[in-house]
Amino acid sequence: MERLQAYKFELRTNGEQLGKLRQFAGSCRFVYNRALGLQQENHKAGLKYIGYVPMANRLPKWRKEEGSCWLKNASAHPLQQSLRDLDRAFQNFFAGRAGFPRFKKKGDGDSFRYPEPKQFKLDQANNRVFLPKLGWIRYRNSRKVLGTLRNITISERCGKWFFSVQTVREVEASQHPSTSLVGIDMGIKVFAAQSDGENHLPLNSFATYQRKLAREQRSLARKKKFSNNWRKQKDRVARLYRRIANARADYLHKKTHTISNNHAVVCIEDLKVANMSRSASGSQALPGKNVKAKSGLNRAILDQGWGEFRRQLGYKLGWAGGELIVVPAQYTSQQCSCCGHIAKENRQSQAGFCCQSCGYSDNADTNAAKNIEAAGHAVLACGGDVRPELREHVIQAAPVKQEPAEAIWAIA
Ligand SMILES: [Zn+2]
Fold it and tell me: What percent of the chain clears pLDDT 70, i.e. is strictly above it?
């Protein structure tokens, strides 16, 4: 079995390297935004979408033009890669999987990628990595990288720079030690409720830190921009953000590790996190309802990282020889897991479920998880009540980018 695995480490740059990293990321952002602008103009003029190849053919010209000749300082490959990213964003948009691509802002997930293994070198013995035009950069070597190197991505998060190297290696297909199947219902009050009655309570790292963050940000707003105190305060805010992100990553990795170890097959609802967390305010023509309540719910969903939870469960189960099954979300919270009766009235309160038909009562989240488990059984029994493309989609989508738990903990 081929295992794709990514390893992420923190870079230990000197001042000159740091400047160049920022410059390269800025060049990639510029190219991405320029191409996006071009696509928009093109569309307004009623012309067809410009594909990746004709767009990439414009790059050499941009690198020579007077206004953007500084692009020459950056390597060509990462610039091409950002055009590939834009192309993928458009393909996702055309297929209805994502919204219209947006312009990138400075500091908003800056990153760039070298797609070929011959473009970089990893010297694990001396804790350093070689990148074109940047030279050798030291890094915090926290674990051994196994397998053949495939590509490398450099990224910034909360003021720190990281590289993530993707590898591939042959491993023996593993057999999951357990044979159990469990359904999981995702929620706000209970992060994940299992059909066997076990509950995972949420770690609302953001909620805990929220007040503190608001205070620090108010203090930042009061300071004179670009003054020394302003810079210090900005660092403080960035550190707080980093701590929240680390706490969440740690929580998700621990939960998905436990669940994927204990159960061979995990069934989960196909919640469209992207849809659910979409801005509640709507558009001018179609204003949203319940804007305030929904934006609170959105923040809670994003805060808990459901999408990331599902991604981790997928690849961890795959590695352990198990399987993640995604079932469509339909009435799982209103349906009785005992007799199948569906009614709004079954849900008496947030926490309690009481069937109006057969009198079965249970915790509402556990009942929903049992319905999800039943739907998962239907999938395993081939087809059932489940759209096949859904299953395929998940199996393909799961192992794209993997950050193993240890690597994240090592950075934290
Ligand atoms: Zn019932």
Answer: 83
